[in-house]
């Protein structure tokens, strides 16, 4: 018996070693850097208390829907959130919506993402599509309904069966279902659109492309570390309108600026260090190296 055990032990060792190597190779073969980064972020930065309800369990609720702008367009050029012509370009790609005041929340709802779907019309596909809030729908069909999506022509057409987009656009007011979902811009980093009215004493900016929650609860600014205010002083910005946040100063602000973002649903904090460079220009867009996912 002892002889048999001695004979089988090396074989057992080799078998285990080969199994371990095989599993390791399988892991290396399937390893995707972005997926690994997302898993790490989810494990480290999200606590159970932070996970918003819409990620724990998706809940579909009724709403009305119409469309505006051109049939294959992005609604208006920019809208009440202040994203400008970005609404028609990647990663928004015209998949945007104006929203009733109850979800617009005086601009705090800007950047939030929803899935919408329709089944009440023969031309409806029943498949959900993701849209992002970029505008306000204050009147018309948005008045009688507590929740209403005034979709871009592109987004409204995406609810239809293939080849039946024009039929669906001619249906008038649709009854749809909607659910709050995380934003996903496929790896795009957050960008900062400087308001055209900005100057050395007044700085305003619209952050865009925030993944996960999408909307923001607060925005803070820190001047260059060489200022007399000190390197660790964050100055709270005030919401100006839509997704635009402003800071008015009694003295000239010293760039580069770092921007600190606090998400709307979970309160998660993200810092874009020195994202607004010295010599910044009003109306310019400055991409960062960070995002929530």
**Overall pLDDT, averaged?**
82
Q: How many DSSP-defined strands? A: 15
| H/E element sequence | HHHEEHEEEHHEEEEEEEEEE
Shape: elongated
Strand order of the largest sheet: 1-5-2-4-3-6
Structural class: alpha+beta
Q: What does the radius of gyration come to?
A: 25 Å
Number of helices: 6
Instruction: State the helicity in percent bands.
Output: 10-25%
Question: Which residues sit in consecutive blocks of at least 5 with pLDDT less than 50?
Answer: 1-49
Task: Report, as a whole number of angstroms, the end-to-end distance.
Answer: 58 Å
Strand content: 25-35%
Largest β sheet strand count, sense and barrel closure: 6 strands, mixed, barrel
Write a structural description.
The protein is of the alpha+beta class. It has helices spanning 2-30, 33-45, 53-56, 101-104, 153-157, 165-169, and strands spanning 61-68, 96-99, 113-117, 129-136, 148-152, 174-181, 191-194, 202-208, 216-222, 235-236, 238-241, 244-248, 257-263, 269-276, 285-287. The longest helix has 29 residues, at 2-30. It is elongated. The chain starts with a helix and ends in a 6-residue tail after the last strand.
